Amino acid sequence: MPIVNRVSAFADDIAAWRHDFHENPEILYEVHRTAAIVADKLKAFGVDEVVTGIGKTGVVGVIKGRQSGSGKVIGLRADMDALPIQEIVERPYKSKTPGKMHACGHDGHTAMLLGAARYLSETRNFDGTAIVIFQPAEEGGGGGKAMIEDGLMTRWKIDEVYGMHNMPGVPVGTFAMRTGPTMAAADRFVIDIEGRGGHAAMPNQTIDTIIVAMTIGQALQSIVARNVDPVESAVLSITTFHAGDAFNVIPQTARITGTVRTFKKDVQDLVEKRMGEIITGIASSMGATASLDYERGYPPTVNHADQTTFAAKVAMDVVGADKVTTDHPPLMGAEDFSYMLEERPGAYIFVGNGDTPVCHHPAYDFDDNAALYGASFWARLVEMALPAR
């Protein structure tokens, strides 16, 4: 069966929850309204334990099976936060908050995990414990790490943890995943350059920071092309360049910022090392000084083999083997579920969102039909991982 029957029975409720979250987006850790609604609904469903304030504004629900002391503890995670983006499409449930919208589908992720929690609380057709995790601040705030630091894994003795994200361009009613590196580490850098400013008509009396910065920017692109092993993956992108504010002045300083994406720590280390060497060397050779502030962000999201294989079996149970891809290409985007996978074995799965704009686009929307597949996947994952006796 493609969708668990009981989940299908409250499809309208799941859609209504999703639309409400979409109308009222909240960003980073400021998900107070969303978290309160999630907590209230979990209590109404009869979830055994509901705890708020984990990782500042995260919510955790504990659902015990028929023999809760005899099985494993499985964590299921959804993110709740929106993005600082202005929605550009008119919808009945369009964002009511200017400059904020659910442009990545976290409204759908939250709604479908609520649907699974309702089903699991009603049926209890498993032996063990399901932990439903509603996380704040995925979009750059490290909410997953904050929840871990608040004792998420140890307090509830989680054995395995799973996350799910919608995927535009992948048909609704299908799933995609891969073993190993699935999403990249996301690092940021700031390069500050100081030369000697002066009159643009007398460049010989200056040390031109714009020329230095342009030379550094070009040279940095050689790192991926000539230093990183060709069979590995890395991206180094310069995204801002700031220098000067007058047409007749060579500026004293310049600043370059950007991002580095990698899948492996040794590649990450290599890129950072070479950046420092290139920046310092070029600046010195041109009579300027330069510094690199390199900040490591989310680590790579790396799926564990056994749990990914199991997740694929669950997906096949829900939609059939022909609608499950197990070798989905890795993505250079980042995801803070990576912190949870560093703590416990698990997997990060993609559920198809159909032919929609990409995530983070101002016209994006989550497909309500995808939530039924996602909720069914969560339900069957618990039942298959913790089979009732």
TrEMBL record:
It holds the Pfam family Peptidase_M20. InterPro entries: Amidohydrolase, Bact_exopeptidase_dim_dom, Peptidase_M20, Peptidase_M20_dimer. The keyword Metal-binding applies. NCBIfam families: amidohydrolases (TIGR01891). Residues 189-275 form the Peptidase M20 dimerisation domain. Its cofactor is Mn(2+). It comes from Candidatus Raskinella chloraquaticus. PANTHER family: METALLOPEPTIDASE, PUTATIVE (AFU_ORTHOLOGUE AFUA_6G09600)-RELATED, PEPTIDASE M20 FAMILY MEMBER. This is Amidohydrolase. The keyword Manganese applies. The Mn(2+) ion enhances activity. GO terms for molecular function: metal ion binding; N-acetyldiaminopimelate deacetylase activity. Mn(2+) binds at residues 104, 106, 139, 165, 360.
